[in-house]
Specification:
Helix content is 66%, strand content 0%. The protein contains five helices and no strands. The protein is elongated and about 60 Å long. It starts with 11 loop residues before the first helix and ends with a helix.
């Protein structure tokens, strides 16, 4: 049996699902939330879709930078605590790093 996939850009019923102002309570599952998000995107014109994709790229880039900086910060704190002769177990609990990352 061949699986059927919805194309959010061509399926008429799928495009009309976004007529809701908010997602009804019975559709709060992750699957439905993603479907509503795809339906919202299907309504966008080419210019709006480009703007959306650009803003999403900027968001992901910034999130990557912040996540990396956060991890680097934890490693720096661990190095500083280790230099002060703080016990590895305490450093591990304080930073959330495993002992191998601290050593």
């Amino acid at each position: 049996m061949k699986a059927k996939y919805i194309n959010p850009f061509t399926d008429f019923g799928f495009k009309k699902i976004v007529d809701f102002q908010t997602i009804p309570t019975i559709f709060k599952d992750e699957v439905f939330t993603q479907a509503f998000e795809k339906a919202e995107l299907a309504k966008l014109g080419p210019t709006e879709l480009d703007s959306y994709e650009n803003s999403l790229k900027i968001y992901r880039d910034l999130k990557g930078v912040i996540d990396t900086a956060y991890e680097d910060g934890k490693l720096e704190v661990a190095r500083n605590l280790k230099a002060l002769a703080v016990d590895i177990e305490i450093i591990s609990k304080s930073t959330g790093l495993i002992k191998e990352q601290i050593s």
